[in-house]
Amino acid sequence: MAEERRLVTILFSDVAGSTALGEELDPEDLRALLGRYYAIAKEVVAEHGGTLEKFIGDAVMAVFGLPQAHGDDAVRAIAAAEQLRDRVRAEMKLGERLPIRIGLNTGEVVATRDASSGDFLITGDAVNTAARLQQLAEPWAIMCGARTASAAAGDFAFGPAVELVAKGKRAPLRALPLTGRAPTRPRVRMPLFGRTGDLAQLELAASRVLDDRRPFLVSVIAPAGTGKSRLLEEFLDRLETRAPDARVAIAQCLPYGQRLTYWPLRAVLYRLIGASEDAAPAEVRDAIATWLEANDAPDRERVGPLLAATVGVGEHDVVDRAALYAAWRTAIEVAARTQPLVIVFEDLHWSSDSLLDLVEFVMQPRGATPVLMIALTRPELLDRRTTWGGGRRNHLALSLEPLADGPITELVEHLLESRQPEVVERIVARAEGNPFYAGELVRTFMERGGSLDTLPDTVQATVLARLDGLSEDERRLVQIGAVFGRSFRPAGAEAIAPELAGRAEAICGSLIDKDLLRPSGADGYVFRHILIREVAYQTLPRATRARLHAAAAHWIETSAEGREETVAELIALHYREAATLATAANADDPDTIATRRNAVRWLVRAADAALASAANVEGSRHLRAAIDLAEPTEVAALYERLGDAYADAGQSIAGYRAALELTSDADPDRALRLIGGILGALTRSQGAVADRPTEAELDVLRSRGAALLEVATDPRAKARFHSAEGFHAFWISLDRTATDAELAASERHATQALELARGLGDIAMQSAALDALSAVAMMGPADWNAVREISRSRLSLGDGLELGEKMDTYSMIAWASVSLGDLDEAVRASREGQSLVQPGQVPAWALHLVAWRTYALALRGDWDEALASGERARQLWVETGEIAAGYANRGFVAARDVALARRDEAAAERFAAVIDAIMARFVASALAPVYRDVVRLKPDALATLVRMAATTETRIPELFERAVSLAVDRDWPLPLEALEQARAPSASRGQRPLHAALDRAIAVTRGDPDLLRRVLADAEAMHARPMIGRLRCELGRMTGDDAEIEAGLRILRELGDRLQIEKFEG
Question: Which end of the chain is less crowded, N or C, counting CB atoms within 10 A of the terminal residue's CB?
């Protein structure tokens, strides 16, 4: 047996008045009570890293510091004593019968270890003293020796020291009664090192806000641990002096990807209106209304419900994101009227796409508004939003680089509080400019007794080492808090970890002292750095994570009773995590099945909440997650909802098709709704559907729908099908000319859809039906004036018309105007429509409008604007996820042509690359490869395209017009007979720019100046300056009129048309 001297803390506990208790109770009853007492003691001692030495009658003896010393054994022993007392007292049977008393003492002992059993024999005066302190303590009291109290003084509070006379002791014992946890010491903030320039830029932005009363957005972009949060703390501290009346609101984006739509805005709104986090929905709505009225907010009857909808307490759904975003801009402007407003978005890289759109929207200047928004984000945000900030003058992108060795050295020396050159050098080298890593390395070094040999190699390992050094309770609380996210509330932690009951608040105080947490709000705590949360979360086994996420969801659900919709996405998130993890482990377990059901139920509610605030992307994401976890009987309904939620035609079709495969005709209403949804997306949005079915394939679906129409009873399902059929002639037109019967049938269906939609009061359906009527007017002998008037009537449907439909309406007006040759109206209408949409809003619809605007600007000769509009279209295409936007190619080709004319090869290639990517998606189209070759300036492809147009009606007149114009510009020969054959259909369809381009090509090929003059008159009537310049030069060359050539060159020089200038000056 080996002996060694050890410094330990010893705990003695026994039952006061046990002799009388033994006389009172039956021995079996007493044994049962003591057995429960011993079980609690054994559990508590083990949780705190102690060793249970022995049970003697009603006494318990435990040792802390054997077999392993922890460095905080006195703290552990007191915490164990406190928990033991509280748990015994809390149990009804024990609390009434076993009033325990506890003595604690710290000192050296001789420990003799039995290697065969692992047991210890402990001797020394410290043991006897602990026993005497226990005997002298009052019932339920904890008496600590002076050395124990001194070692734990930072964590616990004690009463006045007393001197106790103990049997067998020559001198009185000095002891201190435990009174509870020590009050939290104020955290001393570390100086800011190496960020003077970055801080100055933040303060300059603040000066612009405060002095000029203009909104400003600062994005602080840096990897984890580089100092974003510390920079913000310093800035906000100084702001109190610069602008003591400034109001600061913190919006915290949670580390759950993009699954929470507008969740961070809850904190901002509640801060502005003075509502508590636990307020019921009606209370929040009332608080919003009161706040808006008190601040004399404009249009408050409309703004209030929209703000409420954003945070899940609205009474009505929102169909127009533009209106919702405008409401937030109004609220922020109102809040900033009386005092400057600072809104901080922490960890914005985790935010939803809809929230990013909203932030960009509200930062559009609209008057004198002193609002500073600060976004703390990792570089991943720029991967999602390459155009974040959009080059705006009121945006500053502040990228934090790793600190140089000098500032890191200062930081390390400050934390060490002494000069230790070797230590400083090693830590600085290991930290690699990351201040958080450097700080954690110093703390780990100090907690490990000053050893450099075991410094962790990574910042994650460093954080893990610090967590390993915590007490069991502290480590457990950190793990539990990590399940909730970056921040948590003690009540929630105790709810999902009952072993922490009554102690979470005190443990949080200890973790604040150890610089792992900081207070947040009235009763919450936040991890000092997100990496602490991430590392703590990773230490939990997956099965434990699943159980804790389910418990967290249940606690949030029950504690939010009556206001569940405000936290629906958060509840869904936790249930989803729980279900996913549990299913991977044991899919058929009854508890797992129940968790999946809860997840599906709440994911659907989360989708409803997102869609109610016009956040289609997030709503679709929730539904996808629900489908992955749902029972087979639930999937069809979920897929239908997914089809409804998607804004992209291809994805919407996929959702409806998946639902239709699981739906029989025995449910005619659902089947008809789904067929109507598929047909509507295929026909109305055919320019965005790469996988175009054959006419025979479409007819199969149409026939099934027609049969269902006879037995269906749902007017909405009928209206949807009629509307889709109203676009059938339009769909046919891409392959062949619709017959008179087909045109009449489409008109009849569109009219029926409009009547049903009016009866239902469905604004979106009315707009779609009117759009179908305008599509009919485009076919046959086109009546573009009728198309334009029908489209304008859609705008009269009022505020209920959602933004996407408005964009489509303006696109149709621009389309009709271009076809009529009214380029001025096309530019005006597209400008008006574009003014309604803000960054991130309905990008697919906006792309359609911007493409038409680009085309019209290019034809009219507003080339600087055309190139800018083309770039805007390219950005929108990226925002759509680079969908098969064939409908946008007219704009990209026009912008490409302008860039070629100005010999801007880089810009031309950018636009050509987009066209290539889009056309590559249309693999089944015979025209796609030809157009791609035209874009790549292959003369043979131009001739092929003209021959195709001569034998079949031109299906994409704008691209054909561009191709013909390009060939004439470059003197590439075109087949005259084919040109003349293509001319007639363009006239009957009323495609004026194409008709002019064909006549120009025919005139140049024939050498016909009279026809060229007629084309010139038509171009002048259209105000098509690029064509006017070319025609004058061509006419002058044909007739030998130098003055005509010079008149044309003047226009070309104003345009910057280098290609044509070189052609006619050469």
Answer: C
